[in-house]
Amino acid sequence: MTAALAAAAGAVGFSHSSLASPTQANSAVNLAALSLDSGQQLSGITTARIQARQLATRDSSRVQLADTTTTKKQSAAAKLAQARAAKLNATQALTAKRASALATAKAKAEAAEQKARESATRCEMMLSGYHITATFGQGGSRWARNHTGTDFAAPMGTRIGAVMKGVVIFADWAGPYGRQVQVRHEDGTVTWYNHMSKFSVEVGETVYAGDQVGAVGMTGNTTGPHLHFEVRPDGGEPINPMPWLRNHCGLNP
């Protein structure tokens, strides 16, 4: 500073040791300049110093403003990232909860279905797409005595299922009956499935209502593909299958 400016700066309470920043230095110089007689011209060096310090002050203010803006942006970005992470965690938790609920519901439904399937009283028709061609007790030259079952005609190879849960007690050739399967049910009733083209079960196997035991054929004494179905309470003499299917099984052939 010039002697006059230095003296003025001292007069307003500033010293070289107290000018810790460009802002403070600039203030000191401005105050010193104002304290001079208005008619006195500042030297070129003094003017340059004032301008340099003013420029330094502006640059410092810009840096501080830029730092403040960056900090605010970083803080906003951090908050946004936290919010997104919280939302993602909530979504993942909800998805996991729904998946668990679905798995539990599926397990319960499968357990109920399995329980229903294994029920000893559940019944299903032996085959579909059939038409009845001979009834119980019907006479005719095709049988040695009156007809002992009901004939369900269907295309060759049509799937034949067990009418109820039971255990296979016979699966072999049975003379005029052709390929025959016998199933004993839990109440002692035995059902016969005859003239089949193939077996799908073995003796000792447990079958449930609707489980395949064979396929429609025309083995044994027959003139066309059909299932000859018999019902024998306690394994004894045959009875009319139609009332049994209706009354015992709730089916309507």
Automatic annotation (TrEMBL):
Signal peptide bounds: 1-20
Annotated M23ase beta-sheet core domain residues: 146-241
CDD domains to which the protein is assigned, alphabetical: M23_peptidase
GO molecular function list: metalloendopeptidase activity
InterPro entries: Cell_wall_metabolism_enzyme, Dup_hybrid_motif, M23ase_b-sheet_dom
Assigned keywords, A-Z: Signal
PANTHER family: MUREIN HYDROLASE ACTIVATOR ENVC (PTHR21666:SF270), PEPTIDASE-RELATED (PTHR21666)
Name of the protein: M23 family metallopeptidase
Natural source organism: Kribbella sindirgiensis
Organismal lineage: Bacteria, Bacillati, Actinomycetota, Actinomycetes, Propionibacteriales
